[in-house]
């Protein structure tokens, strides 16, 4: 069964990304566009548009042109938008690097993309210098000054003249973010100007993000969620983005209060903190209208608890880098939000659920792999036709590697990753479902569930728990056992200080599995 969107159809304008994102820049002029939360440093719309043009002009004079790749390795700061938009004006391709990368990890991406230039900050130079060794990077630009790099400000010293560039929005790439996709080593996701514009139009049609919003920019801009749904979407709407370079709960709350943030795109670990951390009560977050959560599943109980504590709407969406961020989202209308669900298929998209074992379409209520197609779907993986063919089938369906089901009303519920399902006897157990139960325990600060080898049943669920009070393994197992079917019960608990997670908030179960296997052997 193919699920269509209940949201309004959209028209995708045939313009470049920079034209779309900066469409209101001249009208808004000196209005704040990007604000550095901790320092208050602000870039106006006029400065973002003008600065982007100056940088594009300078890069063109250095020989950077259509199809060339430019690497951005920076935390969330207002200046992030300027090289990104400058590169897009020239028909170039941005590749965004994880700010936590080691030199080796960064070098892999630089080599894979053939990046010509890199922009970073002084604090990252210790990693950037070894990272560019042996790559095609000609020059490092740095915001500020650092040995071995050219000041980024030098790119602002130009006449602003741009060469004539013919850009085909539907076919020309504009960004190469890296994603592990359904599995394996990170791969470059080829996204066009039209992919990103379609995504912004699609998300706008849900009524979740509104003109006049003050948007929290805590999720990394190098990640597709932060890049498209926070940075670019906000600029296209004429909104203010208040960014923080790293997450710290107290600083995050101070910034939310000071700037009157109205919408906060977050990930489950932060939602969990907002629900349970006592420090939250010290801050006035009364301007906050909506929290959106993505990148990992969020339990309905946690959604409701956070909503009640902060007196705001909490809703989920679902997607991946390969669909330019989101494929499903709950409506901005509170009466239509389903807690625990990631909502409806977005405008101009189709989705379906395919049974993992048979490959047949799954009826409503039956779990299977989530597949989707639409104008925001990637072209494919960079220089990797095998991975592309394994992810996009002949009918254009992108196979997500995630398991979910759709209810009778068309709401999608994400269960887990195909490869992370725990096989207990003949039953499939979803770690995320058990994690959603565990975090409702008052003594559980955070948790993760993995498959633990078992001679009799094949695998059993094991929980890693960060506790915030006095609680025993037996109490936690009993708590879960009261709330789930017998085959889903937690059979083992290990207390830890922290749950390993990616920058986007996804639990790094592989690390816990390796730790568990090492202890077992």
Give me the secondary-structure topology.
Elements: E1 3-4, H1 17-21, H2 25-28, E2 32-36, E3 42-44, H3 45-61, E4 69-72, H4 81-89, E5 93-96, H5 103-113, E6 117-120, H6 125-132, E7 139-142, E8 150-151, E9 173-175, E10 178-179, E11 187-192, H7 193-204, E12 214-217, H8 224-237, E13 240-243, H9 249-259, E14 263-266, H10 268-276, E15 290-293, H11 300-310, E16 313-318, E17 328-329, E18 344-345, E19 350-354, E20 368-373, E21 380-381, H12 385-391, E22 398-406, E23 412-417, E24 422-424, E25 427-429, H13 431-438, E26 444-454, E27 458-467, H14 473-481, E28 492-495, H15 509-520
Parallel strand pairs: 2-13, 4-5, 4-6, 6-7, 7-8, 12-13, 14-15, 15-16, 27-28
Antiparallel strand pairs: 1-19, 2-3, 9-11, 10-11, 11-21, 16-17, 17-18, 19-20, 20-22, 22-23, 24-25, 26-27
Give the gist of this structure.
By secondary structure, the protein is an alpha/beta fold.
């Amino acid at each position: 069964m193919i699920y269509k969107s209940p949201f309004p159809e959209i028209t995708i304008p045939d313009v470049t990304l920079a034209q779309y994102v900066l469409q209101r820049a001249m009208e808004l002029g000196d209005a704040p566009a990007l604000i550095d939360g901790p320092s208050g440093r602000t870039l106006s719309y006029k400065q973002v548009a003008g600065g982007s043009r100056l940088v594009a002009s300078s890069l063109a004079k250095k020989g950077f042109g259509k199809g060339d790749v430019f690497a951005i390795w920076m935390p969330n700061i207002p200046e992030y938008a300027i090289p990104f938009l400058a590169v897009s004006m020239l028909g170039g391709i941005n590749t965004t690097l994880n700010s936590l990368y080691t030199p080796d990890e960064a070098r892999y991406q630089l080599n894979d993309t053939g990046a010509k230039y890199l922009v970073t900050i002084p604090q990252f130079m210790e990693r950037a210098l070894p990272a560019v060794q042996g790559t095609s990077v000609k020059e490092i630009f740095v915001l500020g000054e650092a040995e071995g790099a050219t000041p980024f400000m030098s790119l602002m010293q130009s006449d602003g003249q741009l060469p004539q560039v013919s850009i085909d929005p539907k076919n020309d790439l504009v960004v190469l973010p890296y994603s592990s996709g359904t599995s394996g080593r990170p791969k470059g996701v080829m996204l066009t100007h039209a992919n990103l514009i379609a995504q912004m139009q699609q998300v706008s049609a849900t009524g979740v993000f509104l003109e006049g919003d003050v948007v929290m920019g805590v999720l990394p801009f190098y990640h597709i969620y932060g890049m498209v749904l926070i940075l670019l979407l906000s600029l296209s709407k004429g909104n203010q983005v208040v960014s923080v370079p790293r997450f710290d709960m107290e600083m995050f709350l101070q910034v939310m209060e000071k700037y009157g943030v109205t919408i906060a795109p977050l990930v489950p670990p932060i939602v969990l903190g907002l629900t349970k951390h006592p420090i939250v009560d010290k801050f006035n977050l009364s301007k906050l209208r909506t929290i959106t959560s993505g990148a990992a599943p969020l339990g309905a109980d946690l959604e409701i608890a956070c909503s009640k504590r902060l007196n705001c709407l909490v809703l989920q969406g679902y997607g991946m880098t390969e669909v330019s961020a989101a494929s499903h989202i709950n409506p901005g209308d509170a009466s239509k939000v389903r807690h625990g669900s990631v909502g409806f298929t977005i405008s101009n998209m189709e989705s379906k659920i395919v049974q993992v074992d048979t490959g047949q379409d799954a009826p409503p209520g039956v779990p299977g792999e989530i597949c989707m197609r639409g104008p925001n779907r990637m072209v494919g993986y960079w220089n990797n036709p095998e991975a592309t063919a394994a992810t996009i089938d002949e009918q254009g369906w992108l196979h997500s590697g995630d398991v979910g089901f759709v209810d009778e009303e068309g709401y999608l519920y994400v269960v887990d990753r195909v490869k992370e399902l725990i096989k207990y006897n003949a039953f499939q157990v979803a770690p995320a479902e058990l994690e959603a139960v565990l975090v409702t325990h008052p003594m559980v600060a955070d948790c993760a569930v993995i498959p633990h080898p078992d001679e009799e049943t094949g695998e059993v669920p094991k929980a890693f728990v960060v506790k915030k009070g006095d609680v025993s393994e037996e109490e936690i197992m009993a708590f879960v056992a009261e709330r789930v079917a017998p085959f889903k019960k937690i059979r083992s608990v290990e207390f830890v200080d922290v749950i390993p997670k990616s920058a986007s908030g996804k639990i790094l179960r592989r690390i816990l599995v390796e730790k568990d296997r090492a202890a077992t052997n």
